[in-house]
Amino acid sequence: MAKVLFAQEIYFPFQSIERLSAYLKHSDNEVDLIIGDEQKITEYIQKTNPDLIAFSVLTPYRNHTLACATSIKEAGIKTPIIAGGYDITFLPDILEYSDVDIICRGEGEQALKELCNRLDSGKDKDYTDIPNLWVKKNGKIYQNQMRPWLKDYDVLPFDDRDLYLNYDSYFSIIPFTQVLVGRGCPYLCSYCFNHGFRELYRSEGSTGYCILRSVDNVIEELRLLKENYTTRYIFFNDSTLTYKKDWIIEFCRKHKEHIKIPFSINAVIQEIDEDIAKALADNGYCELIRFGLETGNEKFRKTVLNKKISNEQFFKGTDLLKKYNLRYSMAMMLGLPGETLDLSWETIEMARKLSAPNSVHAVNIFKPFPGLDITDYGIKIGQYREEDISAHQVPENLKMTAGDGEKVRDIKKKALGTRDMCFYENYRVDEEGQMILRLSRFSHLAIRFPFLRPLIRQLIKLPDNFIYRFIWMATEGLLNIKAHANVPMTFFFKLFLFHRGKKIR
Q1: What CATH number does residue 91 fall under?
Q2: Residue 215 belongs to what domain range?
Q3: Packing angle between helix 245-258 and helix 274-283, nearest 10 degrees?
Q4: What is the pLDDT of residues 394-432, one digit of tens each?
């Protein structure tokens, strides 16, 4: 039995960690969790002496991982450090220029289980040949092939919710529970990791990227959540759950019969036909359907974003949702590479036209995350500096090792891989891109209150400032996040009274 410690920066239940924890525990390994900055994490490692230190990396928290790895090595800790996730999968060179010892590319369950078996073997603990892992050892990096894509997700244990619930009482007040039905997406949008992930697996021989668990398997997980965890709201995280018509219709029927817990899903608007809309309405518990508008200009959407949906299809789909009184949310991105200020205003106007009285808007400031086709496009047209979005945002000849902690911490303040920069900034270097960033601060107001647009057009000519940022965070919180996560006001009271010192997402 190996002891694995998962470490992260913020108080948020990462589904990747819940999934990996369940798989490791099912294989008789011990799993632990620590949340905090690099000092807290390092001190905890010194006390608990795990066999493996693991980070599941989202781009906003990448540099926290790098800083932690350096801090751990500076403390003289020899325990191997592994990092995985979509961000790391697309930036494997990070292994060479950091204090991370191992990276996992692609799916992690089987690779992590095999690694734990090696660490627990009591032999020489050689793990340089495990598929999906790149391993740095004695100055050499072993680059292993990826194992075939797992095709039957019914065999996996359900996510380990107890890992977070037992860690801190904060997790018991989160009003929603995340559930992932499968993996993959059938579309090839240039701004989504799914396209790059599929191509990576395809290049190494895997097929069958889009997979959903059986309806009965999902219903059984929801039954467990209902009976053992008093779950009040299900937030399905899959990119779309309506691309398999028979699946979603069967799910709606069985959910109504056996579960009866409110839920929300992601969909793609052209997938919504009369049968699916009716099934969701008849179910009676679907409180929100989320879909991506992304941009209001049809030509830009189809050519740059590779999202092959017409404006007519958006109007047809939203008309169906309105007909069946289904509440919906449309996500859009501002500051896309190649996007002009006029195109941004067109997106805002399109969102207004598609809106219903109870609809919700999710406005995202586009970020050039690694592994995206559209990021490469932005670099090609000169709107991003490649060094701003590289593996570390450092010169290639700078190798960070123990003792370079100050360099890492300095990078952490500036680079794409930090929470604040990823959530609130636009990395376009042109002035029009920065003006679009300022427009995004007022986007919710511009959609809902068109009479404010002349004033907003003047305000975005001024430099960005803390008032603009406050307007963005307040409207985003009240008009988007609260509705998407079904967050009651009691949550905010509990957060302020008992958990206000915690760093949350």
Answers
A1: 3.40.50.280
A2: 175-382+475-498
A3: 10
A4: 433 334 444 444 444 444 444 566 777 766 778 888 899
